[in-house]
């Protein structure tokens, strides 16, 4: 009984000596508060990524996948750096697929953006010996046969 009475006395004294603290909630927005990267900084970052001498095929694919996952068309200087990276690891197919992915990223403005990209990267493609998807015939269906009723 003494134990329960001392426990109650302790609780009463504690409440009278220590004032009740108020619990306040502070609203903190945690998204979109970081530094914003400019377009030029973004381009330089990816260009430096693809220009690394020790880059391997997996890292090239990761960088290209990250670029394709964004809502943008890569700048021609990024594409050139990626083409050089593909040549360093000797992956011709990856280079052609990345050009195709860039064409796909142009969306409905493919007739405006894609010719500009090809115009800008063409000297690099010639230097590296890489053909465009159109030169390889990838812009046409593979098994496009004439309709037998039109013969």
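^ Assign residues to that structure.
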């Amino acid at each position: 009984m003494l134990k329960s009475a001392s426990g109650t006395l302790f609780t009463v004294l504690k409440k009278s000596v220590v004032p009740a603290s108020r619990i306040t909630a502070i609203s903190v927005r945690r998204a979109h508060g970081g530094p914003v990267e400019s377009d030029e900084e973004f381009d330089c970052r990816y260009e430096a990524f693809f220009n690394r001498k020790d880059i391997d095929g997996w890292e090239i694919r990761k960088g290209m996948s990250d670029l394709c996952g964004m809502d943008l068309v890569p700048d021609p200087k990024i594409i050139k750096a990626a083409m050089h990276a593909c040549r360093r690891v000797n992956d011709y197919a990856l280079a052609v697929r990345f050009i195709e992915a860039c064409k796909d990223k142009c969306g409905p403005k493919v007739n405006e953006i894609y010719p500009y990209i090809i115009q800008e990267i063409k000297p690099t493609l010639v230097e590296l010996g890489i053909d465009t998807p159109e030169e390889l015939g990838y812009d046409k269906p593979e098994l496009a046969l004439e309709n037998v009723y039109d013969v």
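The helical segments are 2-17, 39-50, 57-69, 76-88, 92-105, 110-128.
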